[in-house]
Design goal:
mainly alpha; AhpD-like; 10 helices; 64% helix; 0% strand
């Protein structure tokens, strides 16, 4: 298998160097997975625009989607990053693990989102009518559904990039579900 190194600022285009500088000033560092996108002249800038676009989902709801999709796709990098970000958005460690397991017992609306997201991801966009009905019954609407699908797509991009490149994780590593539940 090919090995991928995380490109340094000096190894990327001038355009991507400016993005690196902006990320460093906003986040404090350039996450390795973002840096890896900079192998492409355009992907990092385009992805950041896509990721930062307006959505009807709250930050917590976005993190629910990110954690569930990353668990289904087995992306350790994204699980680690979004466990940390989820905690910054008010989730406990235990809640992040429960979300990854496929439920949110503390909140019916979030539970409907978890179940829809898991089914959408595992079944490539197909869900049962019961799951979709429960999502709408939890006060989500068709616009929310579109925004969930967009968020799933966002996370799939990064999951696949990490699963293919296996670059080093630069966040505190998320617990394995089997170990956390032992």
């Amino acid at each position: 298998m090919n090995t991928f190194n995380v490109p340094t600022r000096e190894e990327v285009s001038v355009n991507n160097q400016a993005i690196f500088d902006n990320l460093k000033s906003q986040v404090g560092f350039v996450p390795n997975l973002y840096a890896t996108m900079a192998y492409s002249e355009n992907a990092l800038g385009e992805y950041l625009q896509f990721q930062g676009a307006k959505t009807s989902l709250s930050n917590k709801e976005k993190e629910i989607v990110n954690l569930v999709v990353s668990e289904v796709n087995g992306c350790k990098y994204c699980l680690s990053a979004h466990t940390a970000i989820g905690k910054m958005n008010g989730f406990t460690e235990e809640q992040t693990l429960e979300l990854r397991s496929g439920s949110a017992s503390w909140d019916a609306k979030h539970d409907a989102l978890v179940k829809l997201t898991k089914e959408v991801t595992a079944n490539k966009g197909n869900v049962s009518s019961e799951t979709l009905d429960a999502f709408f019954a939890a006060s989500y609407d068709k616009g929310s559904l579109v925004d969930v699908i967009k968020q799933v797509g966002d996370k799939i991009i990064m999951n696949y990039l990490h699963n293919l490149t296996n670059i080093p994780i630069d966040f505190p590593e998320a617990k394995e579900l089997s170990l956390a539940n032992a």
